[in-house]
From TrEMBL:
Record keywords, A-Z: Cell membrane, Membrane, Transmembrane, Transmembrane helix, Transport
Protein origin, superkingdom: Bacteria
One Pfam entry name: MFS_1
Subcellular localization: Cell membrane
Entry membrane topology: Multi-pass membrane protein
GO MF, one annotated term: transmembrane transporter activity
Signal peptide stretch: none
Name recorded for this polypeptide: DHA2 family efflux MFS transporter permease subunit
């Protein structure tokens, strides 16, 4: 259905778009301090990240389905154009509320880019090359989560926070030119019925859930009327969405896909890997700064071993797809991931930098498999008109996992940290409440030196213990991943000679 010419240039355009969109959340996070110092609005800073995340999550399944119905190219170009437009607006924002609106515009575009890019690969590349290509795309996707903070810190320190957004423009324009010029799609759109009720109920449910997770326990208590209202709205519209999808002729998410063991297991794994991996990218830099006393730059650089491990894992999984079953590949992944996370659960102030590097490479290698294999497994045996929906569903569950992981493991780590500081300082003559409220001083070398030694020791040990214990808690969902892998079955890609079809081979 796609004219297969200039595939390398098409791939280059897809890689640039994935790098840009996937990196956007993390690159902005490191610039938040400078943004707030310039624009003010500290009380509403969470909207800067929340608006983007909500828009991306809500848009993924919808754009994936639309690409199945009316073609990939038009919606990929639409997403890329909207993303660039939003990036330009973000760079000239004059207030935090204004920036939040522009970030939402960015997010609408980002929701189209990530799932459709992976789907295009399955459309334009023959089976014998798909594994390697998804491995490459997966490596770029994984690398973006680590490169984002480094690039964000460098740009903010050397130029200004505005260029965190402007940097997207040359990258995005290059991707846009390559896709417009070299991606030739011959699919003719047909008049089809859009599932408006499903789209509306999905967006409302996702927005309610994301805001409930983002603001609960921070802006207002979990038991407040605001939290109850948001989660109740999510429950109502999620139920409405499920009802609408069973009656729509072209549903946003086709539930018949979940009857396929490979597809259903891949979504569970995407959710678990998304939820647990995000904790690593957040807590490792915190550990380096608070426990080792490193700078923000050192905290970002320390993630490079995990980046290298994830790139190797993604590449290996892509190469092995035609050699081994999906189940066997993911078994290697989960074992390596569990070992790596188990090792991360042992870190302490006495852990050497060498050992921490080794632990991160192990955990990065394990999680890297998922970046390339799960999208491939999700579209296995799917025909053209279902690939976009299948791939976007996988991206949706991974992104949902990120949101859940940040909330759940963030709450666990905060609770462990504050409890230990309170227990250790109460009765010692030190003000535990004041220490907890001013924990940011431990991240600032100048102020860290002024903290009394006994108090600093308590903070360092509490920070270390809370992070290592949080990693230990992560082993619970990872253990569930073993069960999901078992249910993947024994399917794999097998490429016939002189044939572009994908067949199923079952290992007896």
């Amino acid at each position: 259905m796609v004219e297969k010419t200039n595939l390398r240039l098409v791939l280059a355009g897809l890689l640039l778009a994935i790098l840009m969109a996937a990196m956007d959340s993390t690159i902005v996070a490191t610039a938040l301090g400078s943004i707030l110092a310039d624009l003010g609005g500290v009380e509403s800073y969470v909207w800067i990240t929340s608006a983007y995340a909500v828009a991306v999550l809500a848009g993924m399944p919808i754009f994936g389905k639309l690409s199945d119905m009316y073609g990939r190219k038009r919606f990929f170009v639409f997403g890329l154009t909207i993303f660039l437009f939003g990036s330009a607006l973000c760079g000239i924002a004059q207030s935090v509320p204004q920036l939040a609106v522009f970030r939402a515009i960015q997010g609408i575009g980002g929701g189209a880019l990530l799932p459709i890019a992976f789907t295009i690969v399955f459309d334009v590349f023959p089976p014998e090359k798909r594994g390697k290509m998804t491995g490459l795309l997966g490596a770029v996707f994984g690398a973006s989560s680590v490169l984002g903070p480094l690039l964000g810190a460098f740009i903010t320190d050397t130029i200004s926070w505005n260029w965190v957004f402007y940097i997207n423009i040359p990258i995005g324009l290059a991707a846009l030119i390559l896709i417009l010029r070299f991606y030739k799609e011959t699919t003719q759109p047909k008049k089809q019925k859009i599932d408006w009720l499903g789209a509306f109920s999905l967006i409302t449910a996702v927005v309610s859930l994301m805001f409930g997770l983002q603001f609960g326990g921070k802006e207002f208590a979990w038991s407040s009327w605001q939290s109850i209202a948001l989660f109740s709205t999510f429950a109502v519209f999620c139920t409405l969405f499920l009802w609408a999808e069973t009656r729509a002729s072209e549903p946003i998410i086709s539930f018949w896909m979940f009857k396929n063991r490979l597809f259903a297991s891949s979504q569970v794994l995407a959710l678990i890997y998304g939820a647990t991996f995000v904790g690593l990218t957040i807590f490792i830099p915190i550990f380096v700064q608070a426990v080792y006393g490193g700078s923000a730059t050192n905290a970002g650089v320390i993630l490079i071993p995990m980046l290298l491990g994830s790139v190797v894992g993604s590449a290996f999984a892509g190469f092995a797809q035609s050699k081994m079953t999906y189940q066997r590949i993911m078994t290697i992944s989960v074992i390596a991931y569990a070992i790596g996370m188990g090792l991360m659960a042992t870190i302490s102030p006495e852990t050497s930098r060498y050992l921490l590097t080794l632990y991160m490479m192990t955990v990065g290698f394990g999680v890297g498999f998922s970046f390339s294999l799960l999208p491939s497994a999700s579209v296995h045996k799917m025909d053209y008109r279902h690939r976009g929906s299948a791939n976007s569903t996988n991206s949706f569950f991974r992104t949902l996992g990120l949101a859940l992981g940040i909330t759940i493991f963030g709450a666990i780590q905060t609770k462990l940290l504050t409890t230990e500081i309170t227990d250790k300082l109460d009765g010692s003559g030190q003000d535990a409440t004041n220490t907890i409220e001013n924990l940011q001083t431990v991240f600032q070398p100048e102020q860290r030196a002024s903290i009394p030694t006994d108090v600093l020791d308590v903070i360092v040990n509490a920070m270390s213990n809370s992070i290592s214990t949080t990693f230990l808690w992560s082993l619970i969902p990872i253990s569930i991943a073993f069960i999901a892998v078992y249910y993947m079955g024994n399917e794999r890609l097998e490429v016939k000679k002189k044939n572009d079809d994908i067949t199923v081979k079952t290992d007896k």
